[in-house]
Amino acid sequence: MEQGEPGDGRVVYRLREVVKSRAKGGSAFELCVPSLDIGRGEFVAIVGASGCGKSTLLDMLGLVLSPSQCGEFSLRVAGQSHSLMELGEASLAGLRRAHLGYVLQTGGLLPFLTVGNNVHLPCRLNAQRGGQLQVKTLLERLKIGDQAHKKPQFLSGGQRQRAAIARALAHRPPVVLADEPTAAVDKFTALEIRDQFKELTASLGITLVMVTHDEALVRPVADRILTFQVEPLGEGHTRSTLREAS
Amino acid sequence: MAARENTGRALVLRLSLADLWHEWILSLCLMLAVAAILAPLLLLFGLKHGTIETLRYRLIQNPVNREIRPTISRSYSRGWIKALNQRPEVELAIPNTRQLSASVLVRLKGGKQETRMEIVPTAPGDPLLLQNRAPVPGEGQCVLSQEAMRKLGAKAGDTLVVTTARRRGGVYEKGVMELKVAGAADPRATTQGRLFVLLPVLEAMESYKDGEAVPRYGWPGSLPQAYPLYDGAVVAGPQPLDNTLLLSLRINTGFYRSQAMGREELLKTSGLSFPEKAHTYFLSTLGSGAGASTGRSSPVDEKNLEAVRAKLRGAEAALLPWVAPQKAELLGPGGKALAQVELYALPGGGDLPAETRPVPAPPWPAANKGEGPRLMLMAAPEVKASGEGLRLRLKMGERELAFPVSLTTEPSPRAGVSFIPPELAGVLRLGQTRPVRYDPEHKQFLIHRRGYAAFRLYTRSIDQVAGLKEYFESQGIDVHTKAAEILQVKELDRYLSLIFWLIAAVGIAGGAASLVASLYASVERKKRDLAVLRLIGLPRGSLLRFPVYQGVVLAGGGFLAALGFFGALAQTINTLFAAHLHPGESFCRLPWQELAATLAVAALAAVLAAWRVSRIEPAEALRDE
Fold it and tell me: What is the model's pLDDT at position A4?
């Protein structure tokens, strides 16, 4: 496992001894991250079968779920390191707004806004000026420039996911998190979206963390692939430990 | 940071509006749902405020219920009724004449049939008329009750011929006047045939019944001429009176004392100077009972003097009436005060032998029978006045009496003593006990009416009737009130209010519950979209405004729709019942307080939906459950 030095400016996420425990319907689940550093501009894929904890990890990285225990859990953005365990809800919301982008499984576009306005929304939230042009360029690069004035419901699944990617990138966040962005589209479109996503984040120097069950899809393009080792600890108790895929 | 907050606020508003617009059919449905709840509520409020309030107000404030009348007639003076009108709880007290004077015969001008009707005095501000859609009649006008209208077959604008009858000296006489019908009072005022006129009209009728002339209507009769009163008399003659005669002068004559009085004292008392040869006596009206201790006299009139004259017949003595000196002001032509004078009666000693006559002698001839006293003044020597247009003014308590006077050529021989004819002094003396005024038209002093036999009074609200009734009873005046009816009306009012508020409470609770449910369901449905907004960094506080804005827009839209609905219905109701409404009344109207209350309910519903929003976690967006 490639490890950055503490305080290394290239490291975006830094996790040490992070544990998240969950009890659900009489069975206990424990996600352990012994050590994880994600560097700037990296494309990190998290793969694994359902129930192994990849979504839980993404929630934590997405600042919407706090670890149960942790040695260190920090996010370094805009030249400043934030110890996430110490921040309140309002500060976390601020970090999410300014520095993170999200692509959800089914897009997560707001149905009541046009594609253009959906993509422009993060810019507006951050009170960024001149976002319109940026949005136009992004949409054109994703080949959906002609869909900008439509409501999401009139777009195909693939176009919706591209619009979601555009929204995640619109305000130029240093980190983008994607949760199964290609699960709802056909194989061919998935490949196309994967390539456009990779190309865009790479050209913009954005760190991309993508969760997927399809290891084959990401193996050719990801810088690193993380997976989980699942071990039963007894009656209804499972522990899942993050490790680098071979 | 502040800039970002503002951006966030504007953004949330735009987002919430965009969402409503996106689902415009659903939004419309919600608005209609809200309108469906609010419209009946508004209508209920409107009806409560219109119908119930109007009926309640009419019932409670009905002048008939606020009326107080004395049960017995006695004389209530002008001043007493004026004081009554100044009491804060009294809206209006109108004096009334004797019942007997109030019965008149009425017919339509040009018509034949005469109807006997009671005539009621009114005054500006009479609530019995004004609150029953009738004006207060003006000069030469009258207002009829609905029943009187029906009986006479009259309508507003018609002219009525009103006949007052009297029997004078065994002859039946009629006084006729014409009155224009100014309007009709609702049956609520009275169900009987009544004719309302201004008080002076009725006063004229009463005077006419009393045999007096009423020049204003050309009715003949006598004038209520003022008569003289005297405080005493001087008896003078060349021979002394024997004691038996002197004593008899105070038996059944109204005088209390009769005794000899020296020239000196007589000069001081009457201003008259008798020659030494005259034997002089003074008859005093100073009472031996209560009058004596207070020093007040009970004056005598012409009849008393006549009785004394009868007793003196045969004896060679003259009777000279005496009035206690009265202070007055002599006014110049412009009303400017020229001098203060003290007025003494100057009777002539005409029957006496010349050597016993008092000085000065009256320079005026004796008054003619049936005419008023001569208005002449023999002013004290120090008074500097002359010419025409002089007036004398006397103050009598609150009243004032002024009349023209002309000066005699010779002034009074005594300083500080001004003489006037004894009849004039006597009339002025009457003015101290009864209201007397000088009537320039007839050149006579006339007596004002003494007071009124009854009155009709309205309190400002029915709550004051009981208190005022007690006040009257403490004054020894039994009054007639609607106390029992008032109690019933108040009780009914209490129950009506209670029932209304119960209905309103249920309506409000239902309306609030429905609005909360609508907004809450809307938030529940959009949970995922709202979670996405939280995920991409919209602060919790900003997101709370999302349903609040929507709630306000939906409730506002629904409210406007309901208001439109209400307006149309209220218009219809008010038009339908226009015939039963007074000006300024409506059966259906909404006060702003109730509008505000309805909006507050909408706001409350939105806040509850916002509370649900506050529990939305951003992580919910990441999962497709």
Answer: 44
